[in-house]
Write a structure and sequence with these properties.
By secondary structure, the chain is of the alpha/beta class. The chain contains 17 helices and 16 strands. The chain folds into two domains: 169 residues, Rossmann fold; 164 residues, Rossmann fold, CATH 3.40.50.2000.
Length: 402
């Protein structure tokens, strides 16, 4: 739809297309899109975000039916007219579910990149997880997802997603149309390769967060130095849901070792009731992204117990690295992959023995100074906005000239 890359010093005009998740539950995808737009603009590119917002659309009583019909048929809000006015060098699709249609993709003939933030093209739930165990039934046919009500524990809610993915990954509208597909980890790329997606389409670009100042030196919280050796305290940040593994974490958590949990979700009330007699376990409720960033440096480490494969390291993990906070991760999730690769903490079994978990926590506490240095170095090299923008613009230019 455009005449190719502009000649004004390599400056690109980029359209980001994204359906924003509702703000009642913090969304890493929303944070990524906003951070990417800002980072690309700061690098001198022109960026326009073409968006739909759950918070606005959910006000209509007919919204559930509208969203279901859009997901099932691909007929729905179409950004084509706005994209034509913008005339971008490249379109970057993030999330179309559930507020954008998908049929417009086949009609758009300009360069198009898409980020696969999850596994929804091969799994209606987006997690490759069912009943706490890995599940790939729907790579072949999504019928199993409907039978088990994998999305929102509802067969009715799952049906539109099953219809949308009935042709397999290679026939998913986004996967089929995109010139380049970005995954945020090699693990995710491998899952899509196994599902039949062409390797030539796939490229790995890890998510980044807005650059955070390096908190080198003594860690300060509310004007006081935090002594991580004599006053350890741990942090969990995420949705209080089964796939996040928080119940498995708390069942194994060492007695009398303080841990704070930031987040909300369907398990919140049950977990608070079950662990009410454990004063070392504190539920702080949901918090905004900026508030979490301010808290991170106060903790000995971050715990990531996610039970699902994850498409990549969660943003909270990246923010922990930037804050020089090491990580204990349960094997099999996106954070664990990166911890093992870069030595930013300790990986334990997916459902660790309580004694093994206690040892891992003590090891991090003992080696925290060295792990903190490694965490920040990993952030600077792999997850900073400088590295992110470079990888994105290389992908855009390869797509434009491809």
């Amino acid at each position: 739809m455009t005449g190719g890359e502009r000649s004004d010093g390599g400056r690109l005009r980029i359209a980001l297309v994204h359906s924003y998740h509702h703000t009642e539950v913090p969304s890493g995808e929303n944070v990524v899109v906003d951070a990417q737009a800002q980072a690309l603009q700061d690098a001198g590119h022109e960026v326009v975000v073409v968006a739909q917002h759950n918070d606005l659309r959910r006000r209509r009583r007919t919204y559930p039916l509208e969203a279901a019909a859009t997901v099932a048929t691909g007929i729905g809000p179409d950004p084509t007219a706005m994209l034509r006015r913008i005339a971008p060098d490249v379109v970057h699709v993030h999330n179309l579910f559930p507020n954008f249609g998908t049929r417009w993709l086949a009609r758009w003939d300009g360069p198009l990149v898409a980020t696969l933030h999850n596994f929804r093209p091969i799994c209606p739930a987006g997690t490759l997880l069912r009943d706490g165990k890995r599940c790939t039934d729907c790579i072949v046919t999504p019928r199993s997802a409907v039978t088990h009500g994998c999305f929102q524990n509802s067969r009715v809610a799952t049906l539109p997603l099953a219809l949308a993915t009935r042709g397999g990954a290679t026939q998913h509208p986004v996967v089929r149309r995109a010139d380049r597909l970005i995954t945020i980890s090699q693990r995710a790329a491998d899952e899509y390769l196994a599902a039949g997606v062409s390797a030539e389409k796939l490229t790995v670009v890890p998510n980044a967060v807005t650059d955070l100042a390096d908190p080198a030196g003594p860690v300060v919280a509310d004007g006081e130095r935090t002594d991580h050796v004599h006053a350890p305290r741990w942090l969990f940040v995420g949705r209080l849901s089964a796939e996040k593994g928080v119940d498995a974490l708390l069942e194994r958590w060492p007695a009398h070792l303080p841990i704070d949990l930031v987040g909300s979700g369907e398990l919140a009330a049950d977990l608070e009731a079950r662990f009410a007699d454990r004063p070392e376990i504190r539920f702080l409720g949901g918090m905004g992204n900026e508030e979490v960033r301010r808290l991170l440096g106060r903790y000995t480490g971050l715990v990531v117990p996610s039970q699902w494969a994850e498409a990549g390291p969660p943003l909270t993990y990246v923010e922990a690295l930037a804050s020089r906070v090491p990580v204990v991760a349960f094997a099999g999730n996106g954070a664990a992959d990166d911890v093992a690769r870069h030595g930013t903490g300790v990986v334990v079994d997916r459902r660790p023995d309580p004694a093994d978990l206690a040892v891992a926590l003590k090891d991090v506490q003992r080696d925290r100074t060295a792990l903190s240095r490694r965490a920040r170095a990993t952030y600077d090299q792999h997850f900073s906005t400088r590295a992110w923008v470079q990888a994105l613009t290389e992908t855009y230019r390869e797509t434009i000239h491809g």
